Amino acid sequence: MKDPDISVVICVYTEDRWEDILAAVASVRAQSLPARETLLVVDHNVTLLDRLSREYKEAAEDGSVRVLANAGPRGLSAGRNTGIAASHGEIIAFLDDDAVAERDWLKHFASGYEDPRVMAVGGRTMPVWASGRRPAWFPEEFDWVVGCTYRGLPPGRVRVRNVLGGNASFRRTAFEAAGGFATGIGRDGDKRPLGGEETELCIRLTRARPDAVLLIDDRAVIHHRVPAPREHFAYFRTRTYAEGLSKALVARSVGPGKGLESERRYTTRVLPAGVARGLRDALLARPGGAGRAGAIVAGVFSAAGGYALGSVRARRGGAVFSVVEIPDGTGEAP
Fold first, then answer.
1. Which run of H or of E encompasses 58?
2. Helices in 255-316 by DSSP H: which ranges?
3. Comparing C-alpha atoms, which of 290, 265, 266 is closest to residue 279?
4. pTM of the model as a whole
5. Which residues are bridge partners to 221 per DSSP?
6. What is the Cα–Cα distance from 101 to 74, expressed in whole angstroms?
7. pLDDT in tens for each of the 334 residues of the chain?
8. Residue 47 to residue 51: CA distance in whole angstroms
9. Smallest Cα–Cα separation from 7: which of 45, 48, 40, 54?
């Protein structure tokens, strides 16, 4: 069976990540299964747009790397939608701008699409800590806080409710069926670190296509840089609170049944087991055990507080987002 054409979209917004961006692009260009193209979508930063355009001038001539301006409102969702609309591949993969993909990343994505029912394939994201090692207090159950795969996700290639946006791929037909990423939810540069846009999209997709299969393949690995400020508890608390706000918006859109389906198992099974492990390690005088147990409890309460406030705002109409219809693969930015 012929491997599908894959376009890779990397959304960027700041020159502070210049070296990371170059490394991300280099990792895509070194894939064992070559990408059809890499699209760098710049989020309302003219200086960065011009600099990247100069950097990849030669690659732009053969179409291997294309630099585009975000054609929608500021934020990650609109940037992704710009990349989808401008891409040519049958599959569109997304890579964070501060991550590098292992050599067989796209190869493992492609293998998932041998089943025509598969509409999305995600991968495993490993943290690269700025300090060189995981903080002793930081629980693996909360690695999603720093955009990485967390303890509690099943291993192997498995069916899931949603993929995680920084390491994911979709069939083009998925966007034709469900529309693009919702704007008004998710990341917006350096503002409050919201999330949830890929969860909302995946639930919307399976409603539009009830036969759709969404997978995570943990062989599709990327390594995601965690900057020093995100190793501190202050960021942990802010991010868990923001996730609660995001989940409230998603639940308001798709209903609490689907919107919180995975979170219920995570909260009732994965997190209690994590607390127990932390307390056991503390009793055995292992470093960080009590801190990990305490961080899990604090994370739950912080997310619950965000969810409560977000639910009130959503009911009052203070939280609004919109779904963008993606053009039919024209290869031109909207």
1. helix 57-62
2. 256-259, 261-265, 271-283, 289-315
3. 290
4. 0.91
5. 124
6. 26
7. 678 899 999 999 999 999 999 999 999 999 999 999 999 999 999 999 999 999 999 999 999 999 999 999 999 999 999 999 999 999 999 999 999 999 999 999 999 999 999 999 999 999 999 999 999 999 999 999 999 999 998 899 999 999 988 999 999 999 999 999 988 665 544 455 566 789 889 999 999 999 999 999 999 999 999 999 999 999 999 999 998 888 887 777 666 555 466 778 889 889 999 999 999 999 999 999 999 999 999 999 999 999 898 888 777 765 555 666 776 655 554 4
8. 6
9. 40
In sequence order, what are the residues at sequence separation of 6 or more whose Cβ sits closer than 8 angstroms to the Cβ of residue 234?
A: none
Question: What would the two tokens of residue 250 be?
Answer: 């998603």
Which residue is listed with tokens 């990408």?
35
- Nearest-angstrom CA–CA distance, 242 and 123: 23
Place of tokens 């308001």: 252
